[in-house]
User: Fold this.
Amino acid sequence: MVRLRRPRRPLHAARQALAAALAVAALVLALRPAPAPAGAPATVPVVVAAADLAPGTVLGEGDLTVARYPPSLRPAGAVEDPAAAVGQALAGGVRAGEPVTDAGLVGSAVTGQLVAGQVAAPVRPADLAVSALVHPGDRVDVLATAPGAARAEVVAAGAPVLATPGPDDDGLLLLAVDADTAARLAAAATTSTLTLSLPPRPPPGAGPPAPRVGG
Assistant:
């Protein structure tokens, strides 16, 4: 007697349904956005110059912006909040996008000594020992000797000294001068050798010398 096998249609249908479900699941996974890489580095705020800024610039809110840096690339001493730099002066020029650091600022206490028409200008004499001879409140003449020149030219006369070098400042002085004198000092620093002369102090009781902002 011949036995007839039952058709396996239910099993076949189940396999087809499972294959279809797997295909749908694969499609869903393919269309999902890729997750962010695990352990992506965080960033930290770094205050940078919003434009090219000259030495002695007293920083305002419009001079600064905030960039995001990976922690490993954050410059040492970088300022994180623009409010911490507003009102302070630059010890040297900075380019747009360059980070602002504590070493490049001279402090609001110094710029508070400026009067109308003055800016704070950095000067680094060729002989760094000369900087050790002056103190805040002194007045100095800045002389520039161009290559091959027979004599030096006075580019700033009687400029008040606002700040003298710290231990890591390489002889940098900060002087109070007018904007034109600051421009001459900046130009002379790139082409000439700078040195200082110290005018004599007034005798006791004579009072302070008359203000001389520029040369």
About this structure: The longest strand covers residues 153-163. Residues 44-104 form a domain with the Type Iii Antifreeze Protein Isoform Hplc 12 fold (CATH 3.90.1210.10). The helical segments are 9-31, 108-111, 128-131, 179-191. DSSP finds four helices and seven strands in the chain.
